[in-house]
């Protein structure tokens, strides 16, 4: 539906003004560390109004992997050049339907929420979920939670921001947690189901390897 705004002429008559004619469409791109991919467009009649808008894209669409359809990534626009808008990754989440499909009766869900810092000083809130094969005792839940926190913290400490995000989204972190926690109690599934960037760290030029963190996954 076209939005119309009325304005008054010098004769007191009102005519319709098409406000959409003053708007420009801006292309939204992911950061270079995520491949610099076009993920959408947004209209505005002033470039300043584009700053701060948030674009959502599924990880499936970003890396062409149907197995990642349940993960939604969020990018916040932080700059405009011509008709192109640059972004920064601000977090991800997982659809409720997918989470519900994982949980079964007679199993335990151990949730861990932890704030960590990467080695380039990004602060990220990470939410992880470990599902046991059957109902666990409280001491097992405590040990699983401690081990999960330890692995997430150490991985962040030894990773740059792009490296840590890749570990979260492409199952490296899930696998680490699974392999260690199954030594404590039988594990069914591990999911890093949500993240949120709380503080942005050092601004630096990412290495060529980091710039292509998702490219290899695309080509598989």
Automatic annotation (TrEMBL):
One of its GO terms (biological process) is translation. The keyword Ribosomal protein applies. One of its GO terms (molecular function) is structural constituent of ribosome. GO terms for cellular component: ribonucleoprotein complex; ribosome. PROSITE patterns: RIBOSOMAL_S3AE. InterPro entries: Ribosomal_eS1 (IPR001593), Ribosomal_eS1_arc (IPR030838), Ribosomal_eS1_CS (IPR018281). Keywords: Ribonucleoprotein, Ribosomal protein. Belongs to the eukaryotic ribosomal protein eS1 family. This is Small ribosomal subunit protein eS1. It comes from Methanofervidicoccus abyssi.
């Amino acid at each position: 539906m076209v939005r119309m705004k009325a304005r008054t002429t010098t004769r007191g008559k009102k005519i319709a003004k098409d406000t959409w004619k003053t708007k420009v469409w801006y292309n939204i791109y992911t950061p270079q560390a995520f491949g610099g991919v076009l993920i959408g467009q947004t209209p505005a009649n002033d470039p300043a109004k584009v700053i701060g808008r948030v674009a959502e894209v599924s990880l499936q669409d970003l890396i062409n992997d149907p197995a990642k359809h349940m993960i939604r990534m969020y990018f916040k626009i932080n700059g405009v050049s011509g008709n192109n808008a640059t972004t920064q990754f601000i977090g991800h989440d997982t659809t409720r339907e997918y989470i519900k499909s994982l949980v079964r009766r007679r199993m335990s869900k151990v949730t861990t929420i932890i704030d960590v810092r990467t080695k380039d000083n990004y602060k990220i809130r990470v939410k992880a979920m470990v599902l046991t094969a059957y109902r666990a005792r409280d001491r097992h839940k405590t040990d699983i939670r401690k081990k999960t926190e330890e692995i997430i913290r150490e991985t962040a400490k030894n990773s740059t921001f792009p490296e840590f995000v890749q570990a979260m989204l492409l199952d490296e972190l899930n696998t680490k947690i699974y392999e260690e926690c199954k030594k404590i109690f039988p594990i069914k599934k591990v999911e890093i189901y949500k993240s949120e960037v709380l503080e942005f760290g050092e601004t630096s030029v990412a290495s060529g390897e980091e710039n292509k963190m998702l490219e290899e996954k695309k080509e598989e």
